């Protein structure tokens, strides 16, 4: 049984592991091995701790052993910075559940807009949650002495 809760002290190692698993395994369905390597190399677990300290709403889906299997991070301005699910737990509605909880948190903060940069694979999840596509973002990630081209999608959801 999966339940959701607030991010807690000690969640960082499991969240780092699930994030890297999602990038390194799941993302290969839409991105090249070079893109995945560059993306995973720029992941920094400290960003989550910094976000928690500044007031980000971080919701974590945990299994029966209280091990994180998915999470999302909502910044105070309505930016949904991260939404990751461990590959063993994709397709079970966890992303949809976490997005709904992030929206409730945004409403409680009187925000009127949520926005994100969704990966190729996350884009349909966000669309099903009511986000609309603004534009494709093409950019590069410095990696191994070169620039690796990659893309994602700027998306938003207006809330009342």
Give the gist of this structure.
The chain has helices at 12-24, 33-42, 46-54, 94-108, 123-128; strands spanning 3-6, 57-62, 68-74, 79-85, 113-118, 132-143, 146-158.
Structural write-up:
- About 35% of the residues lie in helices and about 35% in strands.
- The protein starts with a strand and ends with a strand.
- The longest helix has 15 residues.
- It is of the alpha+beta class and about 160 residues long.
- The radius of gyration is 15 Å and the shape is globular.
- The chain has a seven-stranded mixed β-sheet, sandwiched between helices.
Secondary-structure topology with pairs:
Blueprint: E1 3-6, H1 12-24, H2 33-42, H3 46-54, E2 57-62, E3 68-74, E4 79-85, H4 94-108, E5 113-118, H5 123-128, E6 132-143, E7 146-158
Parallel strand pairs: 4-5
Antiparallel strand pairs: 1-2, 2-3, 3-4, 5-7, 6-7
Low-pLDDT stretches are none
User: What percent of residues are in strands?
Assistant: 25-35%
Order of helices and strands: EHHHEEEHEHEE
Q: What form results from the Cα inertia axes? A: globular
**What's the story with the biggest beta sheet?**
7 strands, mixed
What is the C-alpha radius of gyration, as a whole number of Å? 15 Å
What fraction, in percent, of the residue positions are helical?
25-40%
**Termini, distance in Å?**
32 Å
Total count of strands: 7
Mean pLDDT: 96
The strand line-up of the biggest sheet is 1-2-3-4-5-7-6
- Number of continuous helical runs: 5
Secondary structure category: alpha+beta
């Amino acid at each position: 049984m999966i339940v959701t809760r607030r991010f807690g002290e000690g969640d960082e190692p499991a969240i780092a592991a699930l994030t890297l698993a999602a990038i390194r395994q799941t993302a290969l369905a839409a991105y090249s091995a070079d893109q995945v390597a560059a993306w995973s190399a720029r992941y920094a677990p400290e960003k989550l701790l910094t976000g928690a300290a500044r007031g980000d709403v971080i919701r974590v889906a945990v299994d029966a052993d209280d091990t994180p299997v998915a999470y999302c991070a909502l910044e105070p301005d309505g930016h949904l910075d991260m939404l990751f699910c461990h590959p063993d737990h994709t397709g079970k509605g966890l992303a949809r559940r976490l997005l709904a909880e992030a929206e409730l948190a945004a409403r409680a903060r009187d925000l009127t807009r949520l926005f994100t940069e969704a990966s190729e694979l996350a884009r349909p999840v966000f669309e099903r949650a009511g986000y609309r596509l603004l534009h494709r973002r093409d950019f590069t990630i410095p990696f191994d002495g070169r620039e690796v081209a990659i893309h994602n999608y700027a998306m938003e959801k207006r809330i009342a």
